[in-house]
Amino acid sequence: MSSHSLDPIFNPRAVAVVGVSSNPNPTGMGSFYNSLLEAGFAETGGLYPVNPKVDEINGARCYPSLMDTPDPVDHVISQVPARFVPELVDQCVRKKVRSIHFFTAGFSETGDARMADIERQMITKLRDAGIRAIGPNCMGLYVPGSRLAFMAGFPMDAGNVFLLSQSGANAGEVVRELTTRGVRFSKVVSYGNGADLRAHDFLDYAAADEESTVVTAYIEGVQEGRKFFEALQRCARVKPVIVLKGGRTASGSQAAHSHTGSLAGSIEIFDAVCRQTGALRAETMEELQDLTVALSTNVHRARGRGVALFAGGGGGFAVLSADAIDRAGLTVPQMPQSAVDEMRAYIPVAGSSVNNPIDAFPPPEHMDDMLRLVATATGMDMVFMSPMVARSRWQNPNNTVKDEQGPVTVEPETESIATIAARQMRQLEDDTETPVIGVMRGGGMARMMGIESDDFFQAAYREGIGAFPSVARAAHTIAQLIEWREYRQGLPEIP
Amino acid sequence: MSSHSLDPIFNPRAVAVVGVSSNPNPTGMGSFYNSLLEAGFAETGGLYPVNPKVDEINGARCYPSLMDTPDPVDHVISQVPARFVPELVDQCVRKKVRSIHFFTAGFSETGDARMADIERQMITKLRDAGIRAIGPNCMGLYVPGSRLAFMAGFPMDAGNVFLLSQSGANAGEVVRELTTRGVRFSKVVSYGNGADLRAHDFLDYAAADEESTVVTAYIEGVQEGRKFFEALQRCARVKPVIVLKGGRTASGSQAAHSHTGSLAGSIEIFDAVCRQTGALRAETMEELQDLTVALSTNVHRARGRGVALFAGGGGGFAVLSADAIDRAGLTVPQMPQSAVDEMRAYIPVAGSSVNNPIDAFPPPEHMDDMLRLVATATGMDMVFMSPMVARSRWQNPNNTVKDEQGPVTVEPETESIATIAARQMRQLEDDTETPVIGVMRGGGMARMMGIESDDFFQAAYREGIGAFPSVARAAHTIAQLIEWREYRQGLPEIP
């Protein structure tokens, strides 16, 4: 375990939720008390709801003020309106808490000079008392290992990804979306205006945190450029760091100013900082998510640009997939003639292609031969495979006309096709040492064949296989990783 | 009704499926007989399965050969292997059918000169007898009005979109995906190698077909450049035509050659042809689908580039959405100060933005005021709206802290939130004459709020509201339409 001054913040023993909603089943954001209950925090730590207007909440005692809660409380979540915050800050000092998370909004981000002043004063008072603050205007902490969660439904098994995000809604979106892709998190912090703790503090923490092997950040504004640069550099030397800067454009930058009070910085400078520090720049939420999957799985092992594509049925799909791969900056190399000849021994000509992309369903007994042959053919740096290809081991949906034999049907047993497909991809990679990347195809085709996207994504992730919602996204992600590795040259190699 | 020489092909009275599968429940492609049964063709027309090895199929008599089927048969679907095709062609001539669709593959697309010769000979023989051919190597016809379908599960209500596609799998994908978006089709034809009927024939038909108001094409290779150019020009003068060329890149062009035997043409020439004829070029399947939705709904009425964005909660989402709009070539104009002041009378400052993007949930009684104010504010050429905004009419998930009042909750009655949201968008557009565009947001946020994407897409389409899976895709589509309208200047105005 690391030993870092912020450790207690990520691992509090007792939490008070001040200004807890009087609604026992609040929806949307701000349901911190219920989220902590669901996460099981109360089973190992103290959890104290505070609201002077409520005596009881879901059967638990509700305290009239922070001062009335049992000792010790080390972390406070503030849901009170902004005008009650100064009094709460005084109580936190007297209560000797270690940290406070201000969900409360309405401070510097409003552009109101008086509220910005109040924000500064309260942070000064807290710092003087040795209390660190997260926010204001944010969702705070999701730490599965500490049973902390800021929204309902977050998984409570811990993973390897550290996420820092100024925006609470974006943090929630990343968690939910990446959870459906199989990813799990070590620590997530939404820090809003960043009046006290900010990006560089969390980057330093993430760099030191052994549980976190990939760091992902959503940032709207950099508050102390030099400190940010140095912390990003320290972190990016030891683990992959993905950074999405919200407000890259004129319209977005104006929106970011309204949101977290962030000032527009030059996006060229920001991009140069990423490049110099060796961080990986994402431009959209999709890129951030895809890169996080890629760096947590086998995808980052892809070295060259040559893709062998098993399209999974449909020549037109193969054509558009090849276009997408080419457009992303990878290639679909011609299959060597020797490999073509070998495949033609068991794959009929009509309605199939054994060139690359491969659009062919061989007889099940030749499936493994074909996969290995393609994965080891000259020029194929990686294999893209639809789970529908794996399906053909059990059921041969050969599009071509067969008059001598009916389709071979061997039903899979208790596991889903997605699970078996993912394992088959893992085996192919282990056998051939060629990275195998999972790709879903649109059009409901996979579902029609009994394969659910999320099921496949999660099964693939468990096998260490990176999987993507489309060929275009897989190819674009890998091209970004290759470019990243090129500009990292000279920096320490990271896995 | 138009009167066109191809009319009988799209409206056959009796169909024989020759080489029908002996499997009573075939999966995947090639289940033409079952798809026609499901589509109800047998209820109005003659439907005759042909296979010498089968006496009966799903309780119906199966004929040993085409010659044994009752007269007349005007359309034949060939599922026999390529080597039996010459004999089937002779039978078609004797049987005096009007058209034959060759699902059968294994001809010119294989690159085998002998098979290409056979393909030419059979087409010559058919033409001499006045029989038109679709294919080989394709899925043929889906015409809801004539109860024709080439795959199971296609909707049997007719719509306005004519789709021509060399690829059968891509045709199926477009139909399935656009069906979930609410779109319906007039006629769909997958024509594969295009040995006889090809793009220009279908474009001429689509131009004349009154049922079709939007034409969408997936093409891998143009076989007769001049005829294609002229037919595209004729069609694009009278209705919007969207063209996706598969094989735009080196990798894709190689794949297209393997797929439909298409030869690489210069993509620059193809793009210039689109521009000169006034057709709309799509580069990906997503673009093709989004443009089809846009041209079948209110989206094409958007004239300027200024977007008023109701983000539906979450400042970080608003920031990234503004970035996406800007990147696409549209803008997110500042809200005029007078409108800001008016909204601030009923929207609290904390946790909200009434600038643009608008991230604010006013009290329900002010919702309509706010929507109208924004839609008519200076610079707002269109409104982007998440269905979650409509939801706030019933349930106010205000993120800000409220100590005086609980959340206002008024449950909708029997209709889904998505349906009500779509109607509200329609009303806003009718009241303000500003196009309202529906946008979903990722991250499972909408689903968490009880809104399913497909439900919303279909409800929006019924109201004539274009809806998109993301802000980025909506903005990109509209920017493409604006560019298209610019280069169409001088050509006849189409709706």
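qc> Confidence is low (pLDDT under 50) at residues 394-411 of chain B.
qc> done
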